[in-house]
Amino acid sequence: MRERKGELFLIAGFTGLVTTLFLAFNWVPSVNINAFESPEAQRIFYWHVPAAWAAFISFSVLFAGSAMWLFKRNELGWKLHIAGSEAGLACGLIAVWSGCIWGAAEWGTPWDWQDYRLNSFALLTLLALFLVLGRRSQPDGVESRDTFATFGFYGFVLVPFTYLVTRIWVIRHPGPIIAGDDASSISLEMRLAFYVGVISFTLMVIGHIITSVQITRFEQRINRLQGIIDGE
User: Fold this and answer.
1) How far apart are CA 59 and CA 7, in angstroms?
2) pTM attached to this predicted model
3) What is the mean pLDDT of the chain?
4) Sign of dihedral through CA atoms 107, 112, 115, 118?
5) Number of helices and strands (H, E) in the chain?
6) Per mean pLDDT, which range of 14-28, 87-101, 114-128 is the poorest?
7) Is the Cβ–Cβ distance between 67 and 154 less than 8 Å?
8) Residue 9's closest CA among 179, 161, 207, 160?
C-alpha cells in the first residue's frame, strides 16, 4: 500500500481533472459577452489557472530539492529536484498550451511578447525543459548534479517575480485568481469548478513527486547492481 500511495494520488488527480473539464464545458455559466471577445474560451481557465498553480508548487519542490543537494548533499534532495523539474515541465506546458489557445481566441494572437508574466512563466517552463533534457543527456555525477541543482536553485527567483509582475504590470494577462482580489467575485458554480481543478492538479503533482522519487530510487539501485555485476 505504501508503494502505491503515489498511484492513488495520481488516479485521484486525473479523475478530478476529467471532472473539471466536464464541469467547465457543461455546468458553469457563461461569462458576460460584453466583457470578452470570445466568452466561451474562458472555460479553458479551469485547467489553465490550476495548471499554473501546480507548476508553482512543482518549482517550489525543485527549489527545495536543489537546495538540499547543494548544501547538504542529500540524496532525497536530488530525487526531489528530479521530481520537481518533471512536474514543473508537465504543468508548465499545460499552462502555456491552454493559455495560447485562450489568447488566440480572445486577443487574436496566441502570445504577447510585451506581457511580463507570460514571458517569465515561459522562462520557467524552458528552465524545466532544460533540466529534464539536460539531465537525461548527461551521465549522473556530482558535477552534473551541482550544475543542474544550481540552475534549479537560482531559477526559483522567477516564481515570485511571475506572481508579482501581474499585480504591478497588468498588460493583457488577467490579474491573479489564487490569492487574488477577484476570487470572490465569480459565481458559486465557477468557484466550485475552479477549486476542483486546483485540488486535482495539486493531487496530481503530489502523486507524481511520490512516484518519481520511488522510480529514481529504483533506478539508482539498478545502476548499483549493474556496477557490481560489471565489476565481477
Assistant:
1) 21
2) 0.85
3) 83
4) positive
5) 7, 0
6) 114-128
7) no
8) 207
